[in-house]
Amino acid sequence: MKRFKRAAVVATVVGLALTACSANNDAGGTGDGGVKADGTATVKAKELTVWTSSADQAYVRDAYKHFGEKFGVKINVVEIAADGLENQVQTKWASGDRPDLLEYHATALFWALNPAKNMIEMSDMPYVKRSGEMYKTAGSLDGKIYAAITVGPGLFGMYYNKKVLADAGLGVPETYADLENVCTTLKQKKPGVATIYEAGGSQWPTQIQILIALASVEKDQGYSQEVLIKKATLDDPGGPFVTALTEYKKLQTMGCFNKDATTAKFEPSFKALADGSVAFLPQSTSSLPQLTAVYGDDLAKASAAIGWVSPSTGGTTSAWSPSFNGTWYVPKTGNSDRESTALAFLQWVTTDGYQDYLTQTKRFAVLSGGQAATPTGIQQEFTDAYGSSKALAVNANLVGFSAQFPTLMTGLLSGQYTPAQVGELAQKALAQGAKSAHLAGW
Amino acid sequence: MAVRESARRRQAGWWPFILPAFALVAAFFAAPFVLNLRFAFTDWSGYSDIIAFNGLENFRSLIEQDILWQAVKVTLLYAVSAMLVQNVFSLSMALVLQRSTRINGFFRSFFFLPVLIAPVAAGYIWSAILAPAGPLNKAIALVVPGFDYAWLGHGHSALASLAFVDAWKWSGLITLVYIAGLNNIPESLTEAAMIDGANAWQRFWRVRFRLLAPAFTFTVVVTMLGAINAFDLVAATTRGGPGTSTTVLNIAMFNQYGSGFFGTASSLSLVVTVLVVVLGLPLIAYLRRREIEA
Known about the structure:
The complex is a heterodimer. By secondary structure, chain A is of the alpha/beta class. Chain A has 19 helices and 15 strands. In chain A, strands 7, 8, 9, 10, 13 and 15 form a six-stranded mixed beta sheet that branches. In chain A, α9 (208-221) runs antiparallel to α11 (240-253), α11 (240-253) crosses α19 (419-436) and α18 (401-414) packs antiparallel against α19. Chain B is mainly α.
């Protein structure tokens, strides 16, 4: 019996020891290696681990490669599937896993990683001074900068097939409501063509039309800020959000979306646009390589066939969002050599390596001191759109909202929710996020 | 005295055998559950390193956002559908494949193949098969021209499709359990029923089905409680959509956790456990009683 008691005690102790990690909410290398993030860090480690997206652009991978070759650092790239990336990063992060460099969003999504505790503050890094006003709306929290945003922002808008519109005698729409007329005409003159490609099966693309529709309201009245300070609410039946959702649902009801809108994935959408089976494809400019791939990576050919438009509620306005590609954070790992090397990478990619990197990105420069490649074709249209009328995407800093938004949109698409219900649930999701982030007034 | 000593030894002799199982359950289920229980009532999130007790606030927030009851409803509907489809199909298959012939052996192995496929792979395969332009609709279109229904694009058909895929995935295993159960029924009983004038249906319903009770207990409990814990198949097929029409509790929990809301994720995890206990224990008790009656 004594032996039994002893065995039971041992089993309990081993069991508790094994499970202790599951209750350790404070897990992870959250120690600060004491490295100064002021541009003086040097390469000290021979290896770096980077968490990056499986949908990363080639220029990001090249930056790792070139840095590794130049400084003799082995870069271990941990690819995280682009679909559901945020969930996976959050899950790994919460379990205490940390990379040396994290490529991630510069929007409110990164607040959920508790940057004040887990990331090295980079307000004093030299690239910050070359970034203009960027960090006022992105990559920062409570006045402290944690991100290194090295690539020009992406715009949300719609690619359109020029030939389809020309054949139907249509011009480009200027407002979101104009799409109704375009749709009516296309249905008459090109019955086999879907006006807008919606990818409900991939979920995240369903947000784009609403972001485009709300861009002018964001520009004119700073709508998202009004929502954050409770001057406006997302569930206001006559408010911009519910109005945009109602217009979206109307377009769907009119039969303006592809037949398989609720289940279609975004991957085949570029081919559908190119072959003229759809007229408009809501997307981000970041997806240009996927579009040009359909044209054999021939930008000129793609530009001849495809145009870019941002039909917002109040006229042509682009919604911009800081780029995911080339936005990095340095988590506190407690390993000063690795932290120093991660900071040295950021220092290098924004100084000595910047010009080559910038040329490769084929995007506008976000840091002064670099000469972006002269835009051509559709890239010129992106540049013009960004230069003429733009606003930060409405969802960028609506903390908590983005987590539920794609789900609510597919619910709207499938008929589970009405626009008013989406508005109500979106407001509640925002409240959950704002309370968790301890925003004032929530 | 010697007899009593021997009985005592026999009684004491069981515990070394149960100890490994007990330790594993204690280490990997009971202790984590107890240690994590408190988080269901806290505001633990990725946004802050301060964790404070917040009572029932998480449950209130989940109800307000139409997450909790919707996920419970979807989970129960999914579990009951999956359990019914699996058991009806598997029992039918078991009756057909009961005899140990070479052809039956081939089909038993054939129907067991989906059990060996990873649930995630099964999910991807079926989401392609069920796509509007997928092979299923193309086959139906041979009879109904232009048929392009989005099976996974509408709430009810998406949930029914998932229950069917779950049944497809696990029926091979459940069929084997039923075959073992059927083979354990003495033939003399069915022969006696036949002599008494019972027809084929009566012999099945009045004799074999009653005596299948132990197998029935196992299969119903495993399929039902397994479906309540569904995650991977749903994640790979619909990710809980469209909207929340296939968002089972574990998907809702994953979404909350992945958004940094660890407290509400813990609350949903608690609901899953409570649901399993509340449904599982009475179900097992009822089915065991049925075994004894049989």
